[in-house]
Design brief:
five-stranded parallel β-sheet; binds glycine; about 25% helix; five-stranded antiparallel β-sheet; 3 domains; Dna Ligase, domain 1; about 425 residues; binds adenosine monophosphate
């Protein structure tokens, strides 16, 4: 068996390692306490010190810091872009400039480091106002508000460094778009690009899409009825992006995650991420479980010649978060309803519990140890069935201050089979 090293510690990495484990020995650094259940080894060693046939980098930070370049210099196959490609996520100002150069449809925008200039621009815009940190903010750096004073206060808090440190010292202010959102994760092997099934993420913390933006409170896939829109995304968004990457001399190998809004004017790109989405990955891997290892390996080696094919059915994941998430999550509560391996104490066919922020205490109990604690993922024939199954599993698992949304994948209109 080949040996794959996965970098990261969340539910996304748990899900990737779970699927990669079908065809390889998997080691995750640093990993988490739920992974042992699936025979996944974890280590605190640096990925640079591990032997690997393939390294899969989960989170954005090591990509933005250039880990992929360093590994490639040592002759190791890596799934994940180098520093140049990762700038698409590392700086929203860079990304917007890139999109403009590539001719990709995206919201009208301005980039500001000065409060007065930002204020002047805001006054030329109409509500709702959209304000984003330039740098990385774990999905939490975006404010969408109808209130001009709140928009101004947010600009001030970001630029002064009090809200997001250095990441906020530059802001992007943009035109608000409307329409349903979808996450299109595209595999890029340096030359070719193939989309995985589209997923929908639920970004707000509260029911009915209310409250603060989070990393994501749940997801489902595939999104029904999007064949035409997906073609448009590939043609008008991804293809010009590949052309621009090539023009800039960037050999991009990894996943290019397009956060797309399906506006009345067609698909617009909200943002690029240079890694798998979380919690989108916790649903998408359910449909590529048997082939993920080969697909990512081919991608890393520049030979992904065929489009990946998905398994039938649908998947839904519900995130169990801690009280206070995303601002100030509480840690340290005992999690009830999990067996000794961290999976459901009473297993349900089709359900996998991916750990995000957990740890084991001295007596082996699973404790909450992060804002997002668990992502419970269900695979079934339809979205409705997967949803029912996911919530039956969620009902088994409790901890003090548990926060869930009960409306994940509730209003999806499925196509007749
Ligand atoms: P981002 O991190 O750029 O994907 O933004 C996070 C969330 O903010 C998105 O998923 C949207 O729900 C919302 N958002 C971002 N940009 C816009 C925009 N231009 N218009 C409307 N909503 C937006
Ligand atoms: N779920 C959104 C993200 O991964 O950025």
């Amino acid at each position: 068996m080949s040996r794959v090293v996965v970098v990261g510690s969340g539910a996304r990495e748990h899900a990737l390692a779970w699927a990669l484990g079908r065809s390889a020995d998997v080691v995750v650094t640093p990993g988490n306490s739920g992974m042992a259940a699936h025979g996944i080894a974890t280590t605190s060693a640096s990925p640079l010190d591990l032997e690997a046939d393939l390294v899969v980098i989960g989170p954005e930070s090591p990509l933005v810091e250039g880990l992929a370049d360093e590994l490639r210099r040592r002759g190791i196959a890596v799934f994940g872009p180098g520093l140049e490609g990762a700038r698409l996520e590392g700086s929203k100002a860079y990304m917007k400039e890139f999109l403009a150069a590539a001719g990709v449809p995206t919201a009208r925008f301005g980039v500001f480091e000065d409060e007065n200039a930002a204020d002047e621009f805001l006054r030329t815009m109409s509500a709702p106002y959209v304000i984003k940190t330039d740098g990385l903010a774990a999905g939490k750096g975006v404010l969408v508000t109808h209130d001009l004073d709140a928009a101004r206060a947010d600009v001030r808090a970001k630029l002064s460094g009090t809200a997001f440190g250095e990441a906020g010292r530059r802001v992007v202010i943009e035109e608000a778009l409307t329409g349903p959102e979808c996450s299109v994760m595209v595999l890029v092997d340096g030359v070719r690009a193939w989309p995985l099934v589209a997923a929908q993420d639920f970004k707000r913390v509260g029911e009915g899409d209310t409250g603060a933006n989070t990393g994501g409170m749940g997801a489902y896939c595939p999104m029904p009825g999007l064949t035409h829109e997906l073609d448009e995304v590939m043609e008008h968004i991804v293809t010009p992006t590949l052309r621009e990457l090539a023009a800039r001399g960037v050999d991009y190998r990894g996943v290019l995650y397009a956060g797309v809004m399906l506006t009345p004017r067609g698909p617009y790109l909200l943002e690029y991420n240079v890694r798998f989405g979380d919690p989108e990955t916790e649903v998408v891997v359910r449909l590529y479980e048997d082939t993920l290892g080969r697909i990512l390996d081919d991608c890393a080696r520049g030979r992904l010649e065929m489009p990946p094919t998905s398994a039938p059915g649908a998947a839904v994941t519900v995130v169990l978060a801690a009280r206070g998430y995303p601002e100030a999550p509480e840690f340290g509560h005992v999690i009830e309803g999990l067996g000794d391996d961290g999976q459901l104490a009473e297993p349900l066919e089709g359900v996998v519990v991916f750990h995000a922020g957990t740890r084991r205490d001295d007596s082996g109990r699973f404790m909450t140890h992060g804002g997002r604690v668990l992502a419970i993922s269900a695979h079934a024939e339809t979205i409705a069935l997967a949803r029912g199954l996911a919530y039956r599993a969620v009902d088994q698992v409790h901890f003090e201050g548990r926060v869930i949304r009960s409306d994940i994948a509730r209003d999806v209109k499925e196509e007749e089979a």
